[in-house]
Amino acid sequence: MKYEIAELHKAVEQLSIDVRELFYRLYSVDISTGSLRIPVEMEDWVKKRFGSLERVEKQQILAIKNRFTGEHSLFNRLRSDRPVEAKSAIAVVREELEDKGKCLFCNPVKQTPADVFGRIKGKYCITGSNIAKYDAFHSLIIFNEHNPLTMRREWIEDYLRTGERWFEEASKLEEKQLQKFFIWNCLWRSGASIIHGHIQLTASRMRYGKLELLEKVAADYKREFNSDYIEDLYKVHKGLGLAKEHKGERILFYLTPIKEKEIVVISKAGRSDEMADTIYKLLRAYLNMGVQSFNLAIFQLEAYHIVRLVDRGSLEDRNSDIGAMELYAASVISSDPFKLAQVISI
Ligand SMILES: [Zn+2]
After folding, report:
1. What's the CATH number where 148 sits?
2. Span from the CA of 86 to the centroid of ligand 1 (angstroms)
3. How remote is the CA of residue 98 from the centroid of ligand 1, in Å?
4. Tally of domains within the chain
5. What average pLDDT does the segment 185-189 reach?
6. What distance in Å separates the CA atoms of residue 85 and residue 264, rounded to the nearest whole number?
7. Do 131 and 251 share a structural domain?
8. 143 CA distance to ligand 1 middle (Å)
9. 89 falls in which pLDDT band (50, 70, 90)?
10. 112 CA to centre of ligand 1 in angstroms
């Protein structure tokens, strides 16, 4: 049975009693209708743009909130059809991605600083120290390949393995285990300031606030329900047809995405490079869907490695995909996790 996010209630009804109970333990859902009146002068334009007047005059909004983490997403299918005002030429973008002139990262040994323990050299990448750091340990995995949208499975594995080696060196220097965090901001929509492909690494003494909150949710959940939060999250997604398994990794087409097409991977892998095949396949699926810019984060939560991956929109758009709603309230989403689960075969 195939559903759309607007039919979430139907998908929940078909769950077994146990999983349905879990769904309502984890989530609250609200469906409401936004109404408006179209003036006669706008009727033709609306019909052309959205197909029918009725779709626009009565818009169904589905709000879903994770009761524990506060993650909250608002879905309105009509939003994905709304006009986009800002435009530029895609040909210019393609040219820009291939233009290596003056690229500092094409010559990392001479043009980027080294860490105090030197550089870690992978087969397809090399590390450099970040010149203006977020945190005391903040470095870069600089890919040999300039164009960040060109990728191969063995390259991804090598990037992650090189990152793990960097964390070992940083921890050795600090003489204690640091919190590892991988950040892959791909192209300017995602916050990347340099086009050349790179992953950032931070090793922090202090647990980052958002990760600590998640850890607290998992601990409180265990105490209250004597059950594993991550495991239950997976059970609910699986029951709804929003999860897949690949080589031991569990892939969730997330019910409360932070922004478009968010995917969360849960893994019991001991090291991030063990997840390379899954990460590569998901990125490849993203590129096949036309995703041009994304954020990817990898971190540890208790015995798990968690990967979060999100689409940040078209490189041609000048408007940001994130506004006051996402920063301070809830995420407004145009993509549908049920459709995403159907499109991504892994
Ligand atoms: Zn370059």
Report:
1. 3.30.428.10
2. 27
3. 8
4. 2
5. 96
6. 31
7. no
8. 9
9. very low
10. 12
Burial class (CB in 10 A: 0-12, 13-18, 19+), 121: exposed
Q: Say if residue 110 is in the same domain as residue 147.
A: yes
Segment among 36-45, 48-57, 106-115, 160-169 with least mean pLDDT: 48-57
| 171 Cα: distance to centroid of ligand 1 (angstroms) | 29
d(CA 115, ligand 1 centre) in Å? 20
| Domain residue limits at 65 | 5-81+210-264+306-343
Strands 198-204 and 137-143: antiparallel
* Separation of CA 235 and ligand 1 centre (Å): 43
Q: Report how far ligand 1's centroid is from the alpha carbon of 149 (Å).
A: 12
Do the Cβ atoms of 185 and 295 come closer than 8 Å?
yes
Q: Does residue 30 lie in a domain region?
A: yes
254 & 338 share domain = yes
- Check: CB of residue 125 under 8 Å from CB of residue 110: no
Q: Distance, CA 148 to ligand 1 centroid (Å)?
A: 9
Determine the pLDDT at residue 87. 44
**Mean pLDDT over residues 110-124, rounded?**
97
Cβ atoms of residues 146 and 106 within 8 Å: yes
Domain membership of residue 311 (yes or no) is yes
181 C-alpha to center of ligand 1: Å? Answer: 24
**What is the chain's mean pLDDT, rounded?**
94
Average pLDDT over residues 136-143: 96
Is 300 inside any structural domain? no
Residue 84 has pLDDT above 50, yes or no: no
Q: Is the pLDDT of residue 86 over 80?
A: no
